[in-house]
TrEMBL record:
Coiled coil: none annotated. Multifunctional protein that is involved in the regulation of many processes. This is Acidic leucine-rich nuclear phosphoprotein 32 family member. One of its GO terms (cellular component) is nucleus. Residues 166-233 have a biased composition (Acidic residues). It comes from Electrophorus voltai. GO terms for biological process: regulation of apoptotic process.
Amino acid sequence: MDMKKRIHLELRNRTPSDVKELVLDNCRSNDGKIEGLTEDFKELEFLSTINVGLTSVANLPKLNKLKKLELSDNRISGGLEVLAEKCPNLTHLNLSGNKIKDLSTIEPLKKLESLKSLDLFNCEVTNLNDYRENVFKLLPQLTYLDGYDKEDKEAPDSDAEAYVGLDDDDDEDDEVEEEEGDEDAAPEDEDEEGEDEDEEEGEEEEEEDISGEEEEEEDLNDGEVEEEEDYEEERGQKRKREWDEGEEDDD
């Protein structure tokens, strides 16, 4: 896919002035130049053109708000004076994997007064004697070179991937915490289930007790009825005997 088409797709129905980050990695650059990028991208702060076949940045438009520029894995060998003119507020510049052979090629970067981080990994210039010391002398505004400062302390945010990595770690930590929270909550749920079972058993026992009491009352009632019937029967027999005895006396 060529760069113009890629830019069109990356817009996603937005206007160029709405775009703050633009990633064009691995697309094709005709004639080794930037194509389709205009000054209409006036709010652009991050531009990535990794491995697109660039040999020059001459066609880079004026981008006053651009702070981070990724140009790694291309074939750029010079012409960096354009950057100070077109992107005066750059703070991070990645030129790793390009054809930069000597310090004179990066000397124009002196004019980038806000430049704090410069990457030149896999460029021939890194093979020069006292390479790091000389680059820091040549570009005194630099804080980090190839991800490390003058005391060889690693930069906390040397490139955009560092931020992505931090976000991923945070998400993983959150997921772990959620899982641990679920595990911790599990015993409480079991306790609650146990309490519910105990309550249900208690209710069943109460119902059994009530039904038992009802059965006892029914048995008592039945007994009372039987006693009354027996009593009535005895009274009837007694009256019959008295009647019979009365008749015998009359005779």
